[in-house]
Amino acid sequence: MKKRVAVLISGRGSNLQALLDARQDAYDIVLVVSNVPGAAGLERARAAGVEALVLDHKPYGKDREAFERDLDHLLVLRNIQIVALAGFMRVLTPFFVRAWAGRLVNIHPSLLPKYPGINTHARALEAGDDVHGATVHLVVEEVDAGEIIGQASIPILAGDTPETLAQRLLEVEHKLYPECLAKLARQL
Question: How far apart are CA 7 and CA 34, in angstroms?
């Protein structure tokens, strides 16, 4: 039985597209939610026949948990079993992380535990690293610290910039995320 997956986005949805394109026996993306009205990823979802909703975080002001309680309600109503973050640009509160513990997954553009947080490509270059990569992990309350489901790496090339490194890594992410999401779905 395929697991019902919701994908949370904030932007263009390139990792969402990779998840949609890789549909298989382990999971089915049935919902995409963006916290940003007009996010390009919403059209990607609609084009694939997936329900696409906007839950704008701005009307909630600083009450992040109230936003997430409404988000949780949307997910529960649709019998979602796994939540995948794909460019969802908000740090989640303990309420949401606990509610979806073991079923909340993220992709991060570094070889965790190296470079949690932002600006990972620039940080890898500044450190003089030879390799860079991506990590799919379970989400816990500490940012980018959850159990690692899978990783993939690429060499850092002479002349790489944060932008070129990000672009090359995106291709790896698009292969890694669907594989790791399927692995998690089979385990649940």
Answer: 9
Integer Cα distance of 16 and 166 in angstroms: 16
Peptide bond into 113 cis (omega under 30): yes
Burial of 59 (0-12, 13-18, 19+ CB in 10 A): exposed
Whole-structure pTM value:
0.96
pLDDT digit string (tens) for 87-140?
A: 999 999 999 999 999 999 999 999 999 999 999 999 999 999 999 999 999 999
| Closest listed residue to residue 32, CA positions, set 21, 22, 49 | 49
List the domain boundaries for the chain.
3-187
3-187: what fold?
Answer: Rossmann fold (3.40.50)
Q: What is the pLDDT of residues 136-147, one digit of tens each?
A: 999 999 999 999
Reading the block at residue 26, the tokens are: 């382990």
Q: Which residues are catalytic?
A: 108
Q: How many whole angstroms separate alpha carbon 124 and alpha carbon 156?
A: 9
